[in-house]
Amino acid sequence: MISEGQQAALSGERRSVILVVDDDANNLAVVRDCLVAFKYTVLVAEDGESAIKRADYARPDLILLDIMMPGIDGYETCRRLKALQSTQNIPVLFMTALAETGNKVKGLEAGAVDYITKPFQREELQARIAVHLYNRELTKRLQEAKELLEARVEERTAELAQANNELHEKAVLLEEEISERVLAEQELHVKQLQLEALNRTLETRVQEELQRNREKDAMMIQQSRLAAMGEMISNISHQWRQPLNELGIMVQMLRVDYDESLLDDAKIDEFSSGCMEIIQHMSQTINTFRTFFKREQTSARFEVAAAITKTVDLVQASFQAAGITLHLELESDCLIQGNANEFSQVMLNLFNNARDVLVERKVANPEISVTTWLENGQIMVVVEDNAGGVPDAISGKIFDPYFTTKHKSQGVGLGLYMSKVIIEGKMAGEIDVVNNSGGARFQLVLPAAPAA
């Protein structure tokens, strides 16, 4: 769940505006009071027509939309909102008592990003709203960063074109001057002076170019981290869904036991102990998330198996949700020198890419395997899937910056590029991909660090 601090940082301390649409005045009052308690600015509408007009005028950050309403229902209201340019990017969450899968699918096909089942839990409502507001803000910031980068690329291209034209003009002038033998000695002297001036400024120009390259690399790293954070939020939502359901069931059963006079000290202790175990598990998820994105500047020896296991903990829930089986064969005492968090980010990129391809291609019995071993003083790390492999047409491009086969909303094409930068540029290793009999095989080769 996104903290209030994160929300405030993303929104620039501006309170997010949420439009609540429901024909039931009681429901409106309950949801409005709940959202006001969460420090949101709340707008309300009682039918689909007025909701569309209000959304077009106010441009809220998120819309909570009831399905069953007089006039046009929630599905049609959502379709019309997505058809308007002014409202098509506003995330819509359905509030519904219809629990059938068909109704949920119909809502998602209409353009909604999520749904909340009535009666809802305050914590679930807060978590879902916060996640989608956070995702929307991340998407906007990624788009802004992309547009800024494109503008800088265009500016740099124009500068290079102008410089090329200037060089061409100078070349033409030089040819004309050479053809005039009478001025040959004078032209030679001029060129010698120009060369001396160029040599005097060469070091400065080299440093300026290096600084521009560092700034470009820093922007790429930031974009990659933002994309990874978006993936991490999705993983946390998968990991929290089951414990939240368990907490809900336990609370409901507590009431049943109370009504039936079955509560005693043992029951209360059992209930308290169960709740604390679940809460500690959810807290550990957040601690893992914070540790994963903690910036570590120093290089140190770390165990490959431990770093991979930490990354697996972050993606296990999303793998289970997608029906993906994960096989691990990790040798102990495989030590390498470097930044453990950066290595974990590489593994996260490989896991996410494999998962996305398996889901996109609808592979039956999807599997991902990870194997590590020590061989001739080098640590071998292999990640394989059964998604059919990388097409030959793009196999030579997948490590290029900004190359992606996904829609722009799903990524900017920096994951594998940054993985290559980390493995080969920072850890003196190698990363490559080949197709095996069933899918893609990513292989990392890293120099082993000596044992302490």
Q: What share of the residues lie within helices?
A: 55-70%
Task: Label the overall shape.
Answer: extended
Structural class: alpha/beta
Tally of strands: 12
What string gives the helices and strands in order?
HEHEHEHEHEHHHEHEEHEEHEE
Question: Radius of gyration from the CA trace?
Answer: 29 Å
The CATH topology of the domain at 300-447 turns out to be Heat Shock Protein 90
Second rung of CATH, namely the architecture of the domain at 300-447 = 2-Layer Sandwich
Strand content: 15-25%
Distance between the termini: 39 Å
* Mean pLDDT metric: 79
**CATH class term of the domain at 300-447:** Alpha Beta
Biggest β-sheet, characterized? Answer: 5 strands, parallel
Poorly predicted ranges? 407-413
For the largest beta sheet, what order do the strands appear in spatially?
2-1-3-4-5
CATH superfamily of the domain at 300-447, by name, is Histidine kinase-like ATPase, C-terminal domain
Number of helical regions: 11
